[in-house]
Amino acid sequence: MNVMDRIKAEVEGHPIVLFMKGTPQFPMCGFSSRAVQALKNAGASGFHSVNVLEDPEVRASLPRYSDWPTFPQLFINGELIGGCDITVELFDSGELARMVSEAQKAA
């Protein structure tokens, strides 16, 4: 399976996917850490994460797949939501909690 197919399988195989540096338990950058906190505070229990530091192919190819240059990248129901700033803004507005709730109900 090529790397683009692997990324697509991750995105489509889970209702909430965060491509990040590190893991939710041990984020390796401040942006990833803030995105994880926003998701947890929005009620995302057990979202799927992909550590791009452990997979150089995914790290190199995800920006082409999503047309988004930076990490982390949050996908909900197969759709790119955005990076850290957008995730935090959605949390602050209450929109992220609604999106997370709907994605988890549909799963």
TrEMBL record:
Record keyword DNA-binding present: no
Binding sites annotated in the UniProt record for glutathione: 21, 59, 71, 84-85
GO molecular function: 2 iron, 2 sulfur cluster binding; disulfide oxidoreductase activity; metal ion binding
InterPro entries the UniProt entry points to: Glutaredoxin, GRX_PICOT-like, Monothiol_GRX, Monothiol_GRX-rel, Thioredoxin-like_sf
The keyword Iron-sulfur appears for this protein: yes
A Pfam family of this chain: Glutaredoxin
Protein name: Glutaredoxin
NCBIfam families: Grx4 family monothiol glutaredoxin (TIGR00365)
Residues annotated to bind [2Fe-2S] cluster: 29
Glutaredoxin domain mapped to chain residues: 16-81
Cited PANTHER family: GLUTAREDOXIN FAMILY MEMBER, MONOTHIOL GLUTAREDOXIN-S14, CHLOROPLASTIC
Keywords: 2Fe-2S, Iron, Iron-sulfur, Metal-binding, Redox-active center
Family to which the UniProt record says this protein belongs: Belongs to the glutaredoxin family. Monothiol subfamily.
